[in-house]
Amino acid sequence: MKTKLKITFPASLTDTPLTYLLIKEFDLKVNILKADIDFNNVGHILYEFTGDQGKIQSTIEYIKSLGITCESIKSTIKIDENLCTDCGLCTSVCFSKSLSIGAPDWTLSFDTDKCIGCNHCIPVCPARAIKEA
Amino acid sequence: MANQRTIQEINEKIKKGVAVVMTAEEVIDLVNDQGIEDAFSKVDVVTTATFGPMCSSGAFLNFGHADPPIRLENITLNGVTASGGLAAVDTFIGVADEDPNSHGEYGGAHVICDLIKGNSIKLKSTAKGTDCYPRTSVEREVKLEDLNEAFLFNARNSYQNYSSAINLSNEPIFTYMGTLLPNGQNVTYSTTGQLSPLLNDPYLKTIGIGTRIFLAGAQGYIAWNGTQFNTSVDRYDNGIPKSPGATLSVIGNLKDMNPEYITPVVFKNYGVSLNVGIGIPIPIVDHEILKQCAISDDQIQTDIIDYSVKKRSKPTVKTTTYKELRSGEIDIDGKIIKTAPLSSLRKAREIADKLKNQIQTGEFLLSEPVEYFKLDSKVKPLKEEDDK
Predict the structure, then answer these.
(1) Are B364 and B220 in contact, with CB atoms under 8 Å apart?
(2) Which of B29, B46, B54, B268 is at 20 to 30 A from B356, Cα to Cα?
(3) Would you say residue A1 has pLDDT above 80?
(4) Are residues B256 and B359 in the same domain?
(5) How many domains are contained in chain B?
(6) Which of chain B's residues have a Cβ under 8 Å away from the Cβ of A98?
(7) Are residues B111 and B248 in the same domain?
(8) Percentage of chain B surpassing pLDDT 70?
């Protein structure tokens, strides 16, 4: 089971070696999908964990106990179905194939499990139907 | 068994509610199962459709006169510049003009679609003032219902066999065919293939000036040939042009349009355009036209062009079929590359079905073209400076 966690470090904790702590404390299989530090010195990490829900739950509580914000998310994008015309152009830049379109019905499918949070689809969507979640 | 019928005869059937109408996808199976002769006796009309970006669109609008009146000159609609070069209170707004404050996210296409949705838009204009039009500025919130006339005019759409795109350079490029990834990692294509209007009547035997069409939910008309109209193009044996061929100019009343079938689009680092939904009925007047309508995606070939070449004439990387493009991936020199559409087949099918239904219920009658298009039209490039 894969779970995506969106981590936000307050400026004072941005230098916390969180990934190291999580692997050491919880023996977690961690994949860092995205990491950056913004101009307010606030740190952001998008993790994908593989493991059972119990372990993930204790991980979330541990991260929060450090004073770091932690949110479990399905994907980094949301699709407005009222704006989407099912053109399919977003699939042209989706490396993970989480966005797909095809026979028989040619309506857009979005598999959140496969989404790696690259967000390339957001500026590509001509209908502006895809936004950051 | 008769092997011909006239548009008039088909219209009589439509009025009696007995015309048989099929979409260009449905008719493929009928012809494959029963052969041309039997199929001809069973189908009167085939509906075709497309829903995709058509940049050469705009709308003529008439606002009515203010008191005292003004000759609208420097005109903006929701911040988008519209032409001040027509009569006093007429304007033309092109879909690709952008509001400079919107960072390319709001343009003429949005204004037109806002009007169709019934939203208010802000008209601002200044003028020099004349004896007959003394006023020098005006600012009003107006809705579509407040305007006298509002009609869409599109100078080029329904492109016959538009080429597909790839980028063989090592940088991403941002085009009206979408974002093309470096090193040929994706291919985009923009037509509905076997459902596409002009691929079903490649020699324009039934489509001409005056043909009534489904235009964004309204009943519109083909007004003229489209710009860059090229009917002298090389063709495959089945009549399909080897490169982009015929195009259409179309016209229709904004007040009758449905926002489901006309939507604004924005292409990153390129600009604004308009998705226009078009449905064209093809009267099955003889065996020949039915044969054309029965051509399927595997028989429609198209070129994949390298858009990274910054020249007018771009090299063809591969000639493929719509069947292969529709499969989601394509083999180019042993490399499997993802393919993605730009025009919505789901919407196009909805339009073809809707038009089929309108014809079956007698709501939509076919029209005989008042003039047919020439088959020897060529396209010229812009004259070079040193050309005599």
Answers:
(1) no
(2) B54
(3) no
(4) yes
(5) 2
(6) none
(7) no
(8) 99
Structure tokens at B101: 């404050």
The per-residue pLDDT for range B121-162, each reduced to its tens digit, is 999 999 999 999 999 999 999 999 999 999 999 999 999 999
Closest CA to A49 of A37, A60, A35, A61: A60
| Rounded (5°) CA angle A57-A131-B81 | 165
pLDDT at residue B58 is higher than 80: yes
> Can you give the pLDDT at residue B1?
62
Residues B133 and B280 in one domain: no
Q: Distance between CA atoms of B28 and B34, rounded to whole angstroms?
A: 10
CB contact under 8 A, B273 and A126: yes
Mark whether B130 and B17 lie in a shared domain. Answer: no
Residue B228 belongs to some domain of the structure: yes
Closest Cβ opposite residue A126 in set B53, B328, B346: B53
CATH number of A2-73: 3.30.70.260
pLDDT digits (tens, 9 = 90+) for B166-217: 999 999 999 999 999 999 999 999 989 999 999 999 999 999 999 999 999 9
Is the same domain home to B98 and B232?
no
Q: Is residue B2 part of a domain?
A: no
Q: Which amino acid is at A23?
A: I
If contacts are CB pairs under 8 Å, which of residues 114-133 in chain A contact chain B?
Answer: 120, 123-124, 126-128
Burial (0-12, 13-18, 19+ Cβ within 10 Å), B95: buried
Domain of residue B77: give its range: 64-147
**How confident is residue B2, by pLDDT bands cut at 50, 70 and 90?**
confident
Residues B300 and B351 in one domain: yes
Q: Is B181 on the interface with A (CB under 8 A)?
A: yes
Looking at the fold, whether B84 and B37 belong to one and the same domain comes out as no
Q: Which residues pair with B232 in a beta bridge?
A: none
In a domain, B59, yes or no: no
B62-84 burial, b at 16+ Cβ within 10 Å, e below that, comes to bbeebeebbbbbebbbbbbbbeb
| Cα B277 to Cα A102: distance, rounded to the nearest angstrom | 20
Quick check: B388 pLDDT over 70? Answer: no
CATH class in words for A77-132: alpha beta
- Structural domain spans, chain A: 2-73, 77-132
